[in-house]
Amino acid sequence: MAYSLQLLSLNLQTLTLYYRRTRMSTNTDAGITRDQAMTLLETYLQNPRLISHCVATEVIMRSLARKYAENETVWGLSGLLHDLDYQITGEDSATHGIETEKILAEKNVMPIILDVIKKHNAEGLGLERTTRFEYALTCAETITGLIVATALVYPDKKLASVKPKSITKRMKTKHFARAVSRERIMECEKMGMPLNDFVVLSLEAMQGIADELGL
Ligand SMILES: [Fe+2]
């Protein structure tokens, strides 16, 4: 009897936790909806490849949020909006992220989103990444480049053809997609996830929206 009561109590705790997390994720007022964020993105970014990069980052961030029971809305929006100012700042690492902060602050977007977006360019802005959320955005946005470059090697250029092993193999090949920082991808370990698991999660997330990504 005592054992049954213990089990019942554990199940109730699990259900309560699940309910809280689900509610938090669906009812979060981040200051901007996903539709509004997408409209904003299309206003500031005319390059379809950049928009696809942001959408790919979003889907990986949402998957990571589910994995770590974090807020999927907040993590997804940070992925979607992280390069909003890219066509304004370009490669200027001293301002990338700062312009996004100005645009989103005017719209009263949640400060934690502005902060994590700046931290994905911590190197350029003289900041430091210390939280799982910050490591997540950095490794997620970076691995999208390696995954896309790997898909393009295949004759059909489809994400469906890519295996996780192909990505980890190319991760070690320095001359392949040279511009993709392996160091930034390896921040998955600081987030608490081994590289192989991160590759599988990211690839599966992107494969789930392959049509939208045109791959
Ligand atoms: Fe990016």
Q: What does this protein look like?
A:
- The chain has two domains: 1-30; 31-213, Orthogonal Bundle (Hypothetical protein af1432), CATH 1.10.3210.
- The protein contains 14 helices and no strands.
- Helix content is 69%, strand content 0%.
- The chain has helices spanning 2-27, 34-44, 48-67, 72-81, 86-89, 98-106, 111-119, 122-125, 132-151, 164-172, 182-185, 187-191, 195-207, 210-213.
- Helix 3 crosses helix 9 (132-151), helix 3 crosses helix 13 and helix 9 crosses helix 13 (195-207).
- By secondary structure, it is mainly alpha-helical.
- It binds fe (ii) ion.
- The site of fe (ii) ion has 4 residues, from loops.
- Residues 53, 82-83, 141 line the site of fe (ii) ion.
Give the arrangement of secondary structure elements:
Elements: H1 2-27, H2 34-44, H3 48-67, H4 72-81, H5 86-89, H6 98-106, H7 111-119, H8 122-125, H9 132-151, H10 164-172, H11 182-185, H12 187-191, H13 195-207, H14 210-213
Helix pairs in contact: 2-4, 3-4, 3-9, 3-13, 4-7, 6-7, 9-13, 10-13
The site of fe (ii) ion has 4 residues, from loops.
